[in-house]
Design brief:
The protein is mainly alpha-helical and 138 residues long. The protein contains six helices and no strands. Helix 2 packs across helix 6. The longest helix is centred in the N-terminal third of the chain and has 26 residues, at 2-27.
Length: 138
Amino acid sequence: MHSITSRIMSLLLLAAGAVSLFGVYSCGRTITDPAEIVIPPSNVSFERHLLPVFNLTCNSSGCHSAQTRAGGVALTSYFEVVFNAPGLVLPNRPDQSILLRVMDFTSRTRIPHRESFQSRITQNHIDGVRTWIREGAQ
C-alpha cells in the first residue's frame, strides 16, 4: 500500500511540475508593443485592459509618469486617472472626457497631443477607453 501511495504522490508532483512549467512558458511572455494589447468590446477593466496600454504608451519619463506628471496628469493608477485630474474622465460621458478627446485623433473636439503618442495607440485602444468610460469608468 505504501508503494502505491508513494507512486501516486510522485506522479502528482510530476504533473504539478509540468503544469507549472507550461504556465511559465505560455503566460510569462512580456508584452513590449502596445499594438499587441487588445481590449474587449465590453466589460473593459482599467487594471486589466487600460493600464497596460498606458504603461507602454504614456507612463514614461517626460510624459504622464508619477514623477513627471505632464500637464499635471499621471496615468499610473485608477485613482490618478479618475479622481486626481478633474475632467479627465467623466463616467458615462466619453465625448466630454478629456482623456478620450486627447486619444481620439479623428474627433472634431480633439485636444492636440504629441505625434509620437498617436503612433503608439491603436483604434482598439481608443474604442476601449470610450467603452470603459461609457460603462461607467469602473
